Amino acid sequence: MISIPYILLIAFAGALLSFVIHHIAPKLRTPVALLTTVLLLYFVWALPANSLINIKIGDFILTWGTTAYGQLFGMLVAVLGFFTVLYSTDFMASKERLGYFYMNFLFVIGGMLGIVYSQDFISLFFFWEIMTWSSFMLVIYCCKDAQSIGLKYFVFSAIGAYSILIGIVLLYSSMGTLQFKNIFGHINEISTGIKISVIILMIIGFGVKSALMPLHVWAPDAYAVSPSPFTALFSGALSKMGIFGIGLVLFKLAAHTGFYSYVQYTLAWIGGITALLATFYAIAQTDAKKLLAYSSIGQLGYIIVGLAIGTPLSIAAALFLAILHAIFKSMLFMATGAVYMRTGTTNMTEVSGLIRKMPISFVTALFGIITVAGVPPLGGFAAKWMLYESLIQSGHYFLVIVIFAASTAAFLYLFRYIFSLFLGQEEKEWENVKEVPWTMQIPMILMTIFVLVIGVFPGLLLDPISSAMQYLNVKPFDYQMSVLFNNWGGKVDMQIVVRSIAAVFILLGIFITIKGYRNTRYVTTKDIHTSGEIPTENENLTYAVDFYKPFERSIAPLLKASIDKVYTLTGDIFEQAFDYLRYVYTGNGQTYAMYVVLFLAILLLFSELIFGIIL
Amino acid sequence: MIYDKSSGKIVDIIKNYARKHSLWIVAYGTGCGAIELPPTMTSRYDAERFGIRGSATPRQADVLLITGYLAVKTLKRVIRTYEQMQDPKYVIGFGSCTINGGMYWDSYNTVKALDRYLPVDVYINGCMPRPEAVISGFIELQKLIEAGKANGAKKYKENLDWYRENQRKVIKNWKMPDYNW
Amino acid sequence: MNINWLSVLGIITTPIIAFIVGVTYGGLTRRITARIQNRYGPPSSQNLLDIIKLYSKETSIQHGVMQHLGPVFAITASITTLYFIPVIKNSVVFTNLSFNGDLIFLLYIMVFGSLGMALGAGQTGNPNAAIGVSRGLSQMVGYEIPFVLSLVAIMTQFHTTSLTDLLAVQKHFADWIIFQSPLAFIAGILAFLGMMGYAPFDVVIAPAEIASGPPSEFGGKYLALMMTSRSIFTFAKLVLFTDIFLGGASDFITLIIKTFLLYMIPVLTGIVFPRFRTEQSICFFWKWPLVFGVLAILVVVL
Amino acid sequence: MKTQNINIEKEIATEIQNTFHTAEVNIKRNKRIEVKLRNDLIPPFLSYAKNYLTFNHLAHFSCVDWIEQNEFELVYIIYSYEKGVIVLAKTRIDREKAEFVTTRHLWYQAETYERELHEMFGINFKGNDRLNEFILEDWEGIPPYRRDFDTVKYATDNFYTRPGREDAKDVRENVTKINKEEIPEFAKEYSVRSLK
User: Fold this and answer.
1) pLDDT per residue as tens digits for the range A427-479
2) What is the pLDDT of residue D77?
3) In chain B, where are the structural domains located?
4) Where would you tag: which of A152, C291, D93, D192 has the fewest CB atoms within 10 A of its CB?
5) Same domain for A164 and A104
6) Chain C touching partners, 3 or more CB pairs below 8 A
7) Is A102 in contact with A18 (CB distance < 8 Å)?
């Protein structure tokens, strides 16, 4: 009963059903979507470990099966899918065209599940396209402005998809099969040129989705414009499909080739530079969702660095970060969505001081940023720690500096994010803001608990990761439920860390609360030191515009160079080139005749040079 | 009671000793007297040896120095600054203007007696008081603190109505926010 | 369950010792500054008196729960950092939890407090506090990079990330890492200047410009806790640098001498230099310290 | 010694006199010229002085209360960096209906001076739209710099006066008595006034 076709069937049937039922009984639409994700969650969770199904269509055999690696990502997709759909029940309640929304939403989830369970390149590509198309539909869902952004996303997705397709065709033409089991491990049977092109094409294809630096330009806008529940899934799970693919390419195809180390090195540096530049861009943003989008690009850069380094610890770090990033970035996008729902804007220079009005969202955002920052005791620390240790121990001395610079600079935008939205002056404009409904709170709270638990017991997540790594033919690494080890004998015992932090924190927290409890009074944020001046109601005491001006000034040369401009320039050059080409193809028969004569004349004149004979 | 030295509790003695030797002045120069503070604090007279130092905001400060003449407009700001300070807090009236108006005795805009509006612990006489006088004023305040007599803040809280009445009399358009005392 | 009472003793006494030493160093700094400026200066117990006075303040004002917890975050980070640094070499009592963490962990736990403090300052709603935080975080990005460069150089040279192992390497006077890897030391000590926050890198709390910045709304017990945290953290950082570069200490007298000498570097630099603007200090850290750090790594690698 | 070289002042004075025939031009002393004008001639004069005579700095703008003549005297002090000469342009306006035109378009800093004069003397400057509350807060009644405003009465009415000042009314008398000095005639006038 529980097998892969059923999972896909449920996803796609649920999608179509919710679209149909939206027009028949709109009230049932959301429950249907929710039920679908619940069923998916159960099915994916209960899926037996070694189910394998072959479907014959003509000459091709489609193979679907579970691997530990796929199951890791499948579980992630299912959980996030459930959370985001639960979140969107209230978030999307007042929106239009919900049948369309839920259909595409479930199509995306189904597509992603299809990708992770594919065991051949045809079905991988098929589901990849389903995912891309329906996510494109969701990007352009919101408004008219989204269409140009959607176009950008579509163009880049198309580039990615076609490079994957060409890679697949190359593979098929040289190997005659597209089954994973026939390709993986037999890659050295084909010529080096094809190997190189296949690997580069596939990395470009998957790199588009995971927003690698030169291919990232679609991401900030597409993330910012899509509806918040979908952004959570977009940044959380969809981008991870790129990581999934790059993982497959790196460890199943490239790892057996002679030029593996070059691929690794290039990819690692691309990832590192992606992380650094994206972080710097994020610092300069004023829109919360765009900030998070750039942050996502940066985090995906870390993950790619981890995958590319290729030591067991670094791969574990990358996969750990991939899962964790899905969770914490969803948390942050959900908190931002909550703010958006109540205030109608995500502009950080407008919103401020929501902490007392939206405590749950604030706590979610707080735990989210602590996890992103990688500060102990939350889960982010384990990922960062493993990444640094593996970088240092594998001799990437300068890459570790780049990564560390990115990671430290991340504090800047993280603080700005939480400060602008939740802290600062409580302004009269947002006086009547209320906390979001419970359906939106539940996913946020659950994920908050998750990062807390993972912080104490990283082993919970490292168990499935180590079995996934076994599938990727990577050597196992040392870990315990709450102790992390590196190759040089260093270790961090998370339990002791968490215990000591918690003990000191609670002890002193109680001390500061009890001491002079009666004489400690709460004052409003208007009652601050303003040199004795009494601020009026409308006086602006919020420091939100140009928050990091000094820092931006010191990194100004980096910010000035924008890859967007390069693409625009390329587009312009092509347009002009085709413009000139128009003069050549005049459409006049005589001109063409002249071309032919000219061509023959040149051929006759230079034939000796070219062919070595006289015609 | 903390202000009462006769309680004899060792805690109170320690507290008063620490308070005495650590007086932070809020950086709020109200009049021309503020110019006497740089020489008081710097190398020549070095008030830091008594534990006196400046602090940037009223939240951290202990001592409010009213340095010189106090216009009605300034009085508003001074009251707010004083109320933002945290107990125990002391006020030092500095120069003859704060005592009886000084050379501004007939000015239309200077309040004449500071202690009607804020509880003054120590007055320093002179126009201007020299840094020596300022330091001697601070030592006087230290003596009061050690003896547990520098309880201006307590007085202010107890007689808030009387002070408010006086303040309102001078400040015509009372737009001060009501804090939750 | 067997409890090692000696380590419990260490857990309890280490913060207290750190506080006393840190507070005395703070007082001494003020006195040394005064002597250099040809003043008499306050007694060296001045900072302790200040902290006691702040604790004895009767009322306190808070703008919300994050401000209430901000100083707690700060002091938690300070004490936890201290716990994961071996204070006295080979001592049962004062090694505390240092076997359970390494240098990368220390790097991260050290910013935990800054983050908490920044959140606390953020909730006060004081624009000066926000400006201070913005400056502080920007400057942090500046000095963390040379610091990490120097740490990476050392970690690579000795093939360890553990502080205990680094201590074990430096058995004799000539083995100190300051002599084994002087370039790393230069990069580290320049970053240390920024880390301590004395002039010229005190733009974060510049009292004349932004009314002492992040702590501008903190008073009474909150400020007291922050100053306590600062004292402990100062000591923790000094011990960390002593352990990394100066071969640690096997008794308290050596520790005091080494940390005091180390402490005098930022203090004496601070007295004679005016204040840098934020971008100036970032550019400073990304110039010479960075060059020294890169050279240190290159020397190790080549 | 300083009066030997006043050629440039003479030149300027003649020039002004030739342009504004009704103006009363006096050379007060070296580098200082006083010009008294009808009040409707002030804006053209200032514009002329600024644009043609290079007096492009408004050093000060103030007012004198001539209560006896029931007039205010407005004094513009302008300075030329090229010539190094100060010109005091004076004019009289009616005290009851205290109104004048703004010179903000010539010097932007005039706005601040006008705000001050508006607050302290109650003069309304037409064309200046920023004549709002400036230094005094919540002031009601006669503007305090007018001479008919009794500042002693105001102070005693509004502020609590600490007892003890009365017996030390005239410090100078006591001091001179001790030092056996004589108070000059003009100084006695000051010491007469005391608290009522």
Assistant:
1) 778 888 888 888 888 888 888 888 888 888 888 888 888 888 888 878 877 77
2) 92
3) 5-170
4) D192
5) yes
6) A, B
7) yes
* Residue of D136, D152, D162 lying closest to B106 (CB–CB): D152
A558: in domain: no
Cα–Cα dist A15/A37, whole Å: 10
Q: What is the mean pLDDT of residues D113-130?
A: 88
C to D contact (≥3 Cβ pairs closer than 8 Å)? no
Overall number of domains in chain A: 3
Residue A116's pLDDT is 86
Q: For residue D194, what pLDDT is reported?
A: 44
Domain end (from A477, A495, A513) = A495
Task: Please state the domain extents for chain D.
Answer: 2-149, 164-196
**Residues A257-262, mean pLDDT to the nearest whole number:** 80
Chains B and A contact (Cβ–Cβ under 8 Å for 3 or more pairs): yes
Backbone φ and ψ for D143, nearest 5 degrees, come out as -60, 140
Torsions phi, psi for C252 (to 5 deg): -70, -30
- Any chains having at least 3 CB pairs less than 8 A from chain D are B
Domain coverage including residue A583: 564-611
Given a contact cutoff of 8 angstroms between Cβ atoms, the answer to whether C69 and A509 are in contact is yes
H helix or E strand, kind and range, residue B10: helix B10-20
Q: What value does the mean pLDDT take over residues A21-41?
A: 83
pLDDT per position as a tens digit, B28-46: 878 888 888 888 888 888 8
pLDDT value for C113: 82
Q: How confident is the model at residue D155 (pLDDT cuts 50, 70, 90)?
A: confident
Q: List, in sequence order, every residue forming a beta bridge with D64; answer none if it has no partner.
A: D73
* Whether this model's pTM surpasses 0.90: no
| Helix, strand, coil share (%) of chain B residues, nearest 5 | 50, 15, 40
| Chain C nearest CA to B70, separation (Å) | 23
Specify if A544 maps to a domain.
Answer: no
The tokens describing D196, both together, are 């009522």
Residues A268 and A391 in one domain: yes
A529: distance to nearest CA of chain B, Å? 6
**pLDDT tens-place string over residues C42-52:** 888 888 888 88
The average pLDDT across A322-328 equals 88
SS3 of A13-39: the string is HHHHHHHHHHHHCHHHHHHHHHHHHHH
User: Regarding the domain with residue range D2-149, which homologous superfamily does it belong to in the CATH classification?
Assistant: NADH:ubiquinone oxidoreductase Nqo5 subunit (3.30.460.80)
Q: Which residues of A touch C69 (CB under 8 A)?
A: 509
Give Cα A449 distance to the centre of its chain: 21
Q: Are A477 and A312 in contact (CB under 8 A)?
A: yes
Closest CA of chain A from B175, distance in Å? 9
CB contact under 8 A, B77 and A531: yes
Q: Are residues A328 and A246 in the same domain?
A: no
- Residue A230 and residue A302 in one domain: no
- Sort A363 into a burial class: Cβ within 10 Å, 0-12 / 13-18 / 19+: middle
Which residues, numbered 82 to 141 in chain C, qualify as contacts with chain A under a Cβ-Cβ cut-off of 8 Å? 83-84, 97, 100-102, 104-105, 108-109, 111-112, 115, 118-119, 122-128, 130-131, 133-135, 137-138, 140-141
Chain A / chain B CB contacts < 8 angstroms: 29
Those residues with Cβ within 8 angstroms of residue C87's Cβ, 6 or more apart along the chain or in another chain: C14, C17, C18, C94, C95, C96, C239, C255
- Nearest chain D residue to B111 by CA: give it: D159
Which of B106, B89, B95, B121 is closest to B29 using CA atoms? B95
Of B57, B177, B179, the CB nearest to A529: B57
Structural domain contains residue A546: no
Give the pLDDT of residue A452: 86
Residue finishing a domain among A235, A258, A281: A258
Looking at the structure, do residues A215 and A313 belong to the same domain, yes or no? no
Partner residue opposite C111 with nearest CB, options A400, A411, A425: A411
Does A306 lie in the same domain as A169? no
